[in-house]
């Protein structure tokens, strides 16, 4: 009450109107002033841990002089945290609340519960506070400073000033380093106590020890070990390289612990495991085997006159090195003459020999192999392989009455009829224009042995097949051409003449190249056919590859080079695509669309369909942003190495994709063919659909045929019920569930045929389809002028569909429409500006 009265008097003294009464009041008030007291001391955090920042909040019972800060202390013996708490800043939050901020340092502290005392503040009247104290304000989590031991940073080594670490990228220690010294340095992060080596005197053999954890002990290639401390942070280790005949691609080493700090030798480290420190390859490769192409050399064996020896090594070799093969224990003279040699792969070397004349008999010929080096440069161990092959070439015996092997010669342009397939047909130089006839009927191929140009050709032909002998113009070279029937031919050597395409001679790219032939067509089944540079530019430098076929006309000129089998009815890329599980109301022209799936020799075994999404109908989906393009590959898939890779639209509205000389043309398609059929018959029960070339759909209902082609984009293969509808512009669309609509636009029956008709009728004219045009229109250009041709999607019926007498493939009707005859169907086109 005394403090309240004093304040009232003090305030009243400033009110002039009531001066007399207030003076009396002031005189009557007690003069003693009460000291402010502490109401509370609160910690922001409890407990407090090293590294934290927090504050202590002190609250008084009356307004304080904020120019005077109180002093906080920790008076209880044994509870003072000392340097653990560092005052950082302080402030008055308001007139009655003071805040002191601390940071808890990373120093050792064992104090748990802390009492706090507060003193030194005064209120706004100058009265000093009553000293404040509160027990157990906050707890401290004990913290002990841990001094780390030394740690190994790395282990690095050099030889010839080149780093050998780490394994995989550093230099590999090899036979070439035998006798050299490799130096390693183990580095520690801080100064050590020399790892128990006082005054540099080694107390253990590595100072510290090294343990090779994945090599079965110290590699035999590391000898003459010595070690020394280069400084308190680094140990130098030296080895002399020896011929350990071993290989370790990645050596792991554990550096033993027990190394102490320089400033506290009692703080020692533990073992450090290092992985992939370096690599050693002092292992000399060995020869595992030498395999001959012919186990016994005898007269006529091998038939090609070439003997090959294939050496198998124990590890990957340096294919820039060349092994030397010799016959140390038998004298073969001129029987074998080394020609070319090559590495079939990193572990197999093939040496070729020509087989010459000679007389010798060896039950077992030993082969010595020397001089090859492995991938790291180590020289192979010289090997002599016993009894690799035998030689049986005795002196010829003159029979009493020489009997020549039976043959069927053909030396003129006449006919040789094969009655005994086991008798070789020998085609002489003068047989150009001649014919080999295999009589009979049946479907079982017969094997024939034919010698042409002095080289054997294995022929399998159906009974009734006729082979014509054709001569390459300007050359004394003959080839076999199927005049009637079917045959396969297998080459016996590389470069053997096989096919004549006009004036271009195609030869086998390798021995055992196999071709399949019928009149005017050839397909490569195995290997390849090569042509003189620039003579057949469509196939490029690769020639005609396996899985590709070539068609010629009656004059022998090339008319097409395509992908696929000879008859186009197998499961290989380029053959006709098969459509399964379609309802009876929809049919597909089985010669309109191509298979993509399968490895292509021209693309090094790549698969054209890889990465493409395929629907159950066989339609391909390509997603681009939010759109789904629905495609069907059309027949044929052609080969043209002159075209650059990429995607373009053809003038007649197909999407052309070129990859590595393989040319695929795509037509727009409906993703769910069965769904389309069901959606149409749901509306038109009598309707039938035929899917034909270029993706064109013929919808027939009520005696009328309508021609449509789907737009490129749709919803893809999604769940839902397909339905047919008309949009706001009167266009037909197909929609499945909530998916995107796909338009079905008016179309010509066959844009390719229409283009051919226009080109023949008006030389110099061009016809171009506008993709996704709402009315399926085309643009005809001639002499700088352009006309738009709009197909009438309903095919004419009755008299309108009759072809006028003497009319060609096109005519103008009395109704002003242009009529085009496409196959056995007629379609009208309206001409507009």
Name the shape in a single word. flat
Unreliable stretches:
1-32, 198-206
DSSP strand count: 63
Biggest β-sheet: strands ordered side by side in the sheet: 25-27-29-30-33-36-37-40-41
The total number of structural domains is 6
Terminal Cα separation, in Å? 110 Å
Mean pLDDT across all amino acids: 88
What structural class do helix, strand and pairing data support? mainly beta
Q: Biggest sheet, open or closed, and with what strands and sense?
A: 9 strands, mixed
Annotation field: number of helices: 4
Rg from alpha-carbon coordinates:
49 Å
Classify the helix fraction into a percent range.
under 10%
- Strand residues, percent: 35-45%
Oligomeric state of shown chains:
single chain
Structure description:
The chain has 833 residues and is mainly β. The chain has 6 domains: 38-139, Immunoglobulin-like; 152-281, no CATH class; 287-393, Immunoglobulin-like (Sandwich), CATH 2.60.40; 408-563, Jelly Rolls (Sandwich), CATH 2.60.120; 568-747, no CATH class; 751-832, no CATH class. Helices cover 5% and strands 43% of the residues. The protein is built from 4 helices and 63 strands. A 9-stranded mixed β-sheet has the order 25-27-29-30-33-36-37-40-41, with no helix packed on it. The radius of gyration is 49 Å and the shape is flat. Residues 1-32 and 198-206 have low confidence and may be disordered.
State the gist of this model:
By secondary structure, the chain is mainly beta. The chain is 5% helix and 43% strand.
């Amino acid at each position: 009450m005394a403090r309240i009265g004093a304040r009232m008097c003090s305030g009243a003294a400033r009110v002039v109107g009531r001066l007399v009464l207030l003076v009396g009041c002031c005189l009557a008030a007690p003069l003693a002033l009460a000291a402010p007291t502490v109401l509370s001391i609160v910690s922001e955090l409890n407990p407090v841990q090293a590294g934290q920042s927090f504050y202590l909040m002190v609250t008084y019972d009356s307004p304080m002089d904020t120019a005077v800060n109180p002093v906080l202390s920790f008076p209880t013996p044994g509870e003072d945290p000392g340097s653990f708490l560092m005052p950082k800043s302080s402030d008055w939050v308001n007139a009655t609340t003071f805040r002191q901020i601390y940071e808890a340092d990373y120093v050792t502290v064992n104090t748990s519960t802390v009492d706090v005392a507060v003193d030194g503040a005064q209120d706004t009247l100058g009265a000093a506070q009553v000293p404040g104290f509160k027990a157990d304000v906050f707890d401290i989590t004990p913290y002990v400073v841990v001094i780390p031991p030394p740690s190994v940073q790395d282990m690095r080594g050099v030889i010839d000033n080149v780093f050998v670490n780490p394994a995989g990228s550093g230099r590999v220690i090899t036979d070439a380093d035998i006798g050299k010294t490799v130096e390693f340095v183990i580095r520690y992060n801080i100064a050590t106590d020399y790892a128990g080596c006082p005054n540099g005197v080694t107390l253990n053999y590595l100072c510290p020890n090294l343990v090779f954890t994945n090599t079965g002990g110290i590699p035999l290639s590391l000898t003459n070990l010595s070690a020394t401390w280069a400084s308190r942070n680094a140990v130098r280790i030296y080895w002399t390289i020896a011929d350990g005949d071993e290989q370790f691609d990645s050596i792991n080493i554990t550096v033993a612990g027990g190394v102490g700090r320089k400033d506290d030798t009692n703080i020692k480290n533990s073992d450090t495991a290092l992985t992939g420190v370096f690599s050693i390859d002092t292992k000399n490769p060995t020869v595992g085997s030498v395999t001959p192409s012919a186990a016994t050399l005898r007269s006529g064996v091998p038939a090609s006159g070439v003997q090959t020896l294939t050496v198998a090594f124990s590890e990957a070799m340096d294919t820039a090195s060349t092994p030397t093969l010799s016959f140390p224990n038998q004298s073969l003279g001129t029987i074998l003459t080394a020609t070319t040699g090559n590495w079939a792969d990193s572990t197999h070397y093939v040496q070729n020999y020509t087989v010459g004349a000679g007389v010798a008999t060896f039950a077992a010929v030993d082969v010595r192999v020397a001089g090859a080096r492995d991938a790291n440069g180590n020289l192979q161990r010289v090997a002599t392989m016993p009894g690799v092959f035998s030689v049986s070439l005795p002196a010829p015996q003159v029979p009493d009455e020489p009997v020549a092997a039976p043959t069927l010669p053909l030396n003129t342009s006449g006919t040789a009829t094969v009655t005994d397939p086991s008798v070789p047909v020998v085609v002489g130089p003068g047989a150009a224009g001649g014919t080999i006839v295999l009589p009979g009927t049946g479907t079982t191929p017969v094997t024939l042995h034919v010698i042409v140009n002095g080289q054997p050709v294995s022929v399998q032909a159906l009974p009734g097949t006729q082979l014509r002998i054709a001569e390459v113009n300007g050359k004394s070279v003959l080839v076999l051409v199927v005049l009637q029937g079917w045959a396969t031919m297998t080459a016996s050597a590389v470069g053997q003449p096989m096919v004549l395409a006009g004036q271009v001679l195609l030869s086998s790219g390798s021995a055992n190249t196999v071709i399949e032939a019928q009149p005017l067509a050839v397909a490569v089944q195995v290997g390849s056919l090569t042509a003189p540079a620039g003579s057949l530019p469509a196939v490029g430098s690769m020639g005609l590859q396996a899985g590709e076929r070539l068609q010629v006309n009656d004059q022998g000129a090339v008319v097409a080079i395509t992908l696929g089998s000879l008859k186009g009815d197998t499961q290989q890329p380029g053959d006709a695509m098969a459509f399964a599980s379609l309802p009876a109301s929809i049919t597909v022209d089985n010669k309109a669309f191509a298979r993509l799936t399968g490895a292509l020799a021209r693309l090094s075994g790549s698969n054209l369909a890889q990465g493409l999404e395929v629907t159950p109908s066989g339609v391909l989906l390509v997603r681009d942003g939010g759109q789904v393009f629905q495609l069907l590959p059309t027949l044929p898939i052609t080969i043209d190495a002159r075209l650059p890779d990429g995607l373009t639209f053809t003038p007649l509205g197909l999407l052309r994709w070129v990859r590595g000389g393989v040319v695929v043309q795509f037509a727009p398609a409906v993703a769910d063919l069965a769904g389309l059929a069901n959606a149409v018959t749901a509306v038109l029960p009598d309707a039938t659909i035929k899917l034909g070339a270029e993706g064109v759909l013929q919808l027939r209902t009520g005696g009328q045929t309508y021609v449509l082609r789907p737009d490129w984009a749709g919803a893809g293969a999604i769940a839902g019920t397909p339905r047919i509808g008309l949009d706001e512009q009167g266009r037909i669309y197909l929609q499945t569930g909530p998916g995107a609509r796909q338009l079905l636009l008016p179309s010509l029956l066959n844009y390719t045929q229409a283009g051919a008709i226009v080109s023949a009728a008006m030389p110099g004219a061009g016809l171009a389809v506008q993709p996704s045009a709402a009315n399926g229109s085309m643009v005809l250009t001639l002499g700088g002028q352009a006309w738009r041709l709009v197909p009438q999607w309903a095919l004419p019926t009755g008299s309108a569909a009759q072809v006028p007498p003497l009319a060609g493939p096109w005519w103008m009707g009395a109704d002003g429409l242009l009529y085009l005859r496409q196959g056995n169907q007629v379609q009208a086109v309206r001409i507009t500006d």
